[in-house]
From TrEMBL:
Its EC number is 3.1.-.-. Keywords: DNA damage, DNA recombination, DNA repair, Endonuclease, Hydrolase, Nuclease, Nucleus. This is Structure-specific endonuclease subunit SLX1 homolog. It is an enzyme of class 3 (hydrolase). GO terms for biological process: double-strand break repair via homologous recombination. It is found in: Nucleus. GO terms for molecular function: 5'-flap endonuclease activity; crossover junction DNA endonuclease activity. InterPro entries: GIY-YIG_endonuc, GIY-YIG_endonuc_sf, Slx1, SLX1_endonuclease, Znf_RING/FYVE/PHD. It comes from Gracilariopsis chorda. HAMAP family: Endonuc_su_Slx1. Its main location: nucleus. It comes from the Eukaryota. One of its GO terms (cellular component) is Slx1-Slx4 complex.
């Protein structure tokens, strides 16, 4: 798993109140144990403010480079070029001032980042891992994520790597058929399916079908079969699910 995460100190010391830390990891459940000193390896910068609670995890990055870029942008939202270009965006207006790295401020920055390209197009999943009793304290219950990036809720130890855990029954992978748009069965091309009706389409055909789009990648795409609209990133997630099913 390639993931960025937000930690909040739950230490009783006054100097640790509302302390936060944003990092990148391949294993969130192991990393939180390192931050809390249960595993002796790394995490020296956070040793003073232990114990920590992992509040949110963003995963689904295509590469380590993309994940590290997101980590830097989340740590430095005031310097992030995509946000500077999108100052008129409702989410971007909520970016906290430099130095104000409170839990709620970090969550506001996360919402802003997920609302602008390139991350608004990426098939990312946000998982809230904080204890439910702490949601109101850190304003998690008032955080409104973008429509296509609705947050999941799961303990750190139960995080799943894939966009959909269809092996546990959360989503059924439909039988692959001919592309609804070009009517061809070409398994060498990236395929996806509609989350509403399950019809198979090629990603390229789906992108080309949106003739009204003003950007390189579409934002919302209408299914050619059931006419339901889904965000482009959802179709990319389902493409990955199909690839995992075939492996």
């Amino acid at each position: 798993m390639l993931a960025c995460y937000l930690l909040v100190s739950v230490s009783s010391q006054r100097y640790s109140k509302n302390r936060t830390y944003i990092g990148f990891t391949l294993d969130p459940s192991r990393r939180i144990r390192q931050h809390n000193g249960e595993i002796i390896a790394g995490a020296r910068r956070t040793s003073r403010h232990r114990p920590w609670e992992m509040v949110a995890v963003v995963h689904g990055f295509a590469s380590k480079t993309q994940g590290l870029q997101f980590e830097w942008a989340w740590q430095n939202p005031e310097k992030c070029i995509p946000l500077k270009w999108q100052r008129d965006h409702p989410g971007a207006k909520q970016i906290p001032a430099k130095g104000r790295k409170t839990p709620s401020g970090c969550l506001q920055s996360l919402v802003a980042l997920l609302s602008v390209p390139p991350w608004s197009h990426a098939p990312l999943t946000v998982t809230i891992t904080a204890k439910r009793d702490d949601w109101s304290k850190w304003k998690i219950d008032k955080t409104v994520f973008p429509r296509h990036k609705q947050a999941e809720f799961s303990p750190v130890d139960e995080l799943r790597a894939g966009p959909y855990d269809y092996r546990r029954g959360l989503m059924t992978i439909p039988k692959r058929g001919a592309c609804r748009i070009c009517s061809k069965r070409d398994f060498h091309r990236a395929e996806t399916f509609c989350a509403s009706c399950g019809v198979t389409v090629h990603l390229a055909c789906l992108a080309d079908s949106d003739e009204q789009r003003a950007t390189f990648l579409p934002h919302w795409v209408q299914c050619p079969s059931c006419d339901e609209s889904h965000h482009w990133s959802l179709f990319v997630r389902l493409c990955k699910a199909l690839e995992e099913e075939c492996d």
